[in-house]
Predict the 3D structure of the following.
Amino acid sequence: MYEKITFVGLGLIGGSIAKTIKKKNPEVKLFATASGEKTVIAAYQDKVIENDKLLTPEEIASSDVIFLCSPVKVNVDYLKLLKPHLKEGTLITDVGSVKGDIEKAVDEEGLSDRFIGGHPMAGSERTGFEYSTDHLLENVYYILTVNPHIDSRKVDEFQEFISSLDAIPLTMSPEEHDFATAAISHLPHVISASLVNLVRKTDNEDNVLKTIAAGGFKDITRISSSSPVMWEHICLTNKDKILELISLYEDELNEFKERIMAENGEGINSLFREAKDYRDSLPVKKKGIIPAAYAINIDVADEVGGIAMIATLLAFNDISIKNVGIVHNREFEQGALRIEFYDDESMVKAEKVLKERNYTIYSRDN
């Protein structure tokens, strides 16, 4: 396994990966550099990394693995700085949610044989090393994007390492990754924002639509509260895949439009039924953009008896659980454990009971 790992960037994701490695593989020596020396000093004082000042490209390049955890432009600049100094066998990876730009830069620099893209499906609206944790990766899907130029043995070794962090590695090509994230994350955010803007533009002076907005509208548009700056960057870096999905979605809308215009009741019913059947087939652990009616998420570490303790506590208070599952994709969803209830009363009671025991709860309106 690896002896020395260095991070370029030590924010929420980089810091969480570093802390998890420190917890799960304490024999590995960790180093880091960042845009500000304060972050490096904080990580050193927390005994996460070995260095207490910024690193030179030569020092970074001597690592077994280099995690690029900065914005794409910074990561690309570091590829150029590191290339002349890389020791034989050094593996480079990143943590970005879009792979097109970084893969292109890796190819241009002739580093494809030592690069594996990475995308841990975790995160929150909070940023910075101070919010990183040693359990953010627990039971989270960690996508690895693999190009045809890298030795499969390197991929197997890195996949095994990611598994040791209690994450769930999924391997795919960069193109598959960017299409998949465009479909299940990027397009839903575009649709959500466009729906909110439609209602905003068609509302009257008395704000009737805004006043009565609830239920389905609030559920499907919850993700519109995400960072506009972040989504600007995502739309620009994954432009082609998002545009492709928007075109496909326009076809779906037109199909609804045509059947409604033709008053084709059976056809309309078929579209809704097919959507319902597919949506109902998704288990809780693969949660999509629309939360169940009565559900909460809980920030709980994956430890022996953790889930059982919560279930016992709820049962002791006569609260029935409808479903429970691990949230494997936590990029835009808070909490590691998701619990669904049969009614609103049970959900509210459960929140009260769990908060009294100092659990951190995220309800559907958070």
About this structure: The two ends are 41 Å apart (CA to CA).
